[in-house]
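We read letters as residues; the fold follows as tokens. A sample entry reads:
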Amino acid sequence: FNNWDPFLHEMTETSPGVYELELPLPRGLQYYDFVYNGESHPDRLNLNKASNREGKIVSYLQVR
């Protein structure tokens, strides 16, 4: 949804250790990961995982 641009959307800390971001996403499968200190990480709370084109593990969700 953002062409894997790590600087396009920044999460906001809403309470200590809790970060949020609200985005309008198109319907369908949406793949994502989190970037922290320049390193990509899949969502550890989301069990849905896949490999991207580079073979890196990312998370995904279904938007309805």
